[in-house]
Amino acid sequence: MADKFTSPDDLAIDLDGAAPLSRFRDARWLLLVGAVLGAVATLFYGVPVLASLSGVAILAAVAAFVPRRSRSMKLQAGQRRQLRRMWPGTGMKVTVDALPVPCFVADGRGITRYVNAAAIDYYGQVKPGDPLSFSLRAPSLLEAFDRVSATGEPERIHWQEKVPTEAFFEAHVAPVYMPGSAGADNRPATPDFILVVINDQTEQKRLERMRTDFVANASHELRTPLASLTGFVETLQGPAKDDPEARDRFLKIMLEQAGRMRRLIDDILSLSRIELKAHVRPAASVDLIEIVRHTADALAPLARDLGMTIRTEVEVDEAIVRGDRDELIQVAENLVENALKYGGDGEFVDIRIQRTKNGDAADHICLAVQDYGAGIASEHVPRLTERFYRVDVGSSRAMKGTGLGLAIVKHILARHRARLEIESVPGKGSTFTVHFMPSESA
Ligand code: ADP
């Protein structure tokens, strides 16, 4: 790609610098007529020779030193045309500025002529006059640019960048012809400008990947109990046909597997329902103290089965937040159920409602669930809210887990503009704290 820079100054034509000699040549007919008129006036009308000569001299001086208007205008028009081909006009600039994605206008040789605000936001300062390759380095994009410049055919290309983080882009590279710039044989000349419009598709790709990963994970999770069910049905139809003892044992396992499938489907549906409402802020006022009491009562039988006790500690007089009661119950139940299931080495699970002042954050209401179990190694903590992420798949399955509980919690809290904080010390237990933003306190 060419990188020679031409500025409008390089194009400037020095009108005043046109040599007096060439102006004489241009005015030769006028001077001739003046000389003839002077001679006629002297010969036939008795005008003094000196006066006639002075008249011709004045005419010559005017021709030599005063630029002719029509010529300068002609030159300016030519200059303007050339400039129009070199620097995009206001119309093109305002159009490009109105686009929300990064846009570069370059000339056919790859020199940047204009960039919109979105491009400056994304790529930092871009100087018109610099080669496009100073800002856009992707080889496939620069090759596409050269092709568009040579053929005049628009192109759409995609590329991927790995550094500093993985990113995906799409660019539309289109030729722009100014009126009257087509070649003499009416085939397109080199485009006057080439418009490069760039789309960052990283987020879209990430969502696509998440969706396909989710479908793959969900089918895998469902296929395992389904395979087990099918296997037992075949065994009951064949070898264990007349074995009532085996039949009872197998039917019990089949019921468990069916329950696991039902829980998975319930959680998947729950997640997708919450996702559908992701952008709708809940409007009702919810009493967190009532939610904590409800959760403690609802999970008391499970705690009893596991030999544990749920303790509640309410350190505030009132804890009203803006929210959806059913969803906040789901959050509290998921956190307490996890604490009971995975904090089994301890004796208690504590649920606390308190007011906290955390760092720079303003005074706000928190709901904390603490267990005194095995805790979680620090490398797992940031990934716990990912769908189907489990520290130990075996123990999660044994505890009837689906791997979706904390993903559901995260989605519900995002809708409530609340934040989940996870602190865990291996061997000592974990605390899951929900911080309700002060503006969400009703
Ligand atoms: P699951 O259905 O497996 O419980 P969750 O999304 O609720 O799925 O939790 C994800 C994983 O996080 C669990 O499988 C478990 O490994 C870990 N985990 C969650 N809560 C706790 C806790 N209180 N103590 C230890 N590990 C926990």
UniProtKB/TrEMBL annotation:
Q: Name one GO molecular function term.
A: ATP binding
> What is the protein name given in its UniProt record?
histidine kinase
- Subcellular localization(s) per the UniProt record: Cell membrane
Question: Which N-terminal stretch is annotated as signal sequence?
Answer: none
Which GO BP terms apply? cellular response to phosphate starvation
What SUPFAM superfamilies does its record include? ATPase domain of HSP90 chaperone/DNA topoisomerase II/histidine kinase, Homodimeric domain of signal transducing histidine kinase
State the UniProt keywords alphabetically. ATP-binding, Cell membrane, Kinase, Membrane, Nucleotide-binding, Phosphoprotein, Transferase, Transmembrane, Transmembrane helix, Two-component regulatory system
Q: What is its main location?
A: membrane
Which class of enzymes does this protein belong to? transferase
Where do transmembrane segments lie in this chain? 29-45
Annotated InterPro entries: BphY/WalK/GraS-like (IPR050351), HATPase_C_sf (IPR036890), HATPase_dom (IPR003594), His_kinase_dom (IPR005467), HisK_dim/P_dom (IPR003661), HisK_dim/P_sf (IPR036097), Sig_transdc_His_kin-like_C (IPR004358)
Top-level taxon: Bacteria
What's in the GO CC field?
A: plasma membrane
Enzyme Commission code(s) on record: 2.7.13.3
Q: Which residues form the Histidine kinase domain?
A: 217-440
Q: Which reaction does it catalyse?
A: ATP + protein L-histidine = ADP + protein N-phospho-L-histidine
